[in-house]
Every structure is written in C-alpha cells, then in structure tokens.
Specification:
about 150 residues; alpha+beta; Aminopeptidase; 5 strands; about 35% helix; globular
Amino acid sequence: MIVPATADDLPALCELLGLLFTQEADFQPDREKQIAGLRLILDHPESGRLFVARCEGTVEGMVSLLEGVNLREGGRAFWLEDLVVKPASRGRGLGGALLRHAIATARALGAVSLTLLTDATNARAIRLYQAHGFIATGPAPVRLRL
C-alpha cells in the first residue's frame, strides 16, 4: 500500500535514505541532515511530497517528489528525488508501484514534467524508469554544494 509519509515514518525514511546514499558515490548518509530535509517536506507540502510503501504495517520503500517550475514548458514540474526499496523487499514490484504513484501524483497536480537523476551504472533502476516511459536526455548534472 502506497500512502503519504508522516513524521512517525522519519526513522524508517532515514534508514532507507542511508541505504540509497551508500550506493551513490556522490553522497554520504547523515541522519541529522536527512531528518532536516524530510521535515522540510513534511512541514511544507507545497515543496514536495513523500510517500511510503507499507507492507503489513512496515515501511519497505519510499519515494520523494520535489516541486518546481518548468519554464520551458510553462508549468509545474516535479523532481523525483529519491526512490528506494529495502533490499529484502526488492523484486516484489514495490519500486514500480512507488514510481507509478509518483507519476500519477505529478499528473494529478498538473505537472508538465517529471525529472529524475540516476547513476549511469545502476542498470536495474534505469530499466525500471525506461519501462515507465522515462527517456535519457542530453543535459549532464552539475552540482555546487553550498
């Protein structure tokens, strides 16, 4: 079952982000930073949405959407910031369910685009995204840490 995350889900969300960030070369888990970021979304729903996949009452996965504006398309846009499922729960369709829920939410909110970044070496994630209609684009990500 995919449902909106709540403050009670913060420990589970931090655990999931820790799993994700140890897989990505650019990031290191930092529980306090992750809690601060998650609280910003929970306390300011106009900035984004957090959803969890719950199985028998336990959080097994999450997806986060951050809201912005697509000036090229002239409308609301969302970034799919984080999608992660616990390793023991992978292969059961939870990642696809979370992704479909994120896409449906963005559409329902009138978004003109949904963008995400994934590591080029994460073939499993790339297959999932492509199976749901995402296509690779030309822009390369660049980041300035402030």
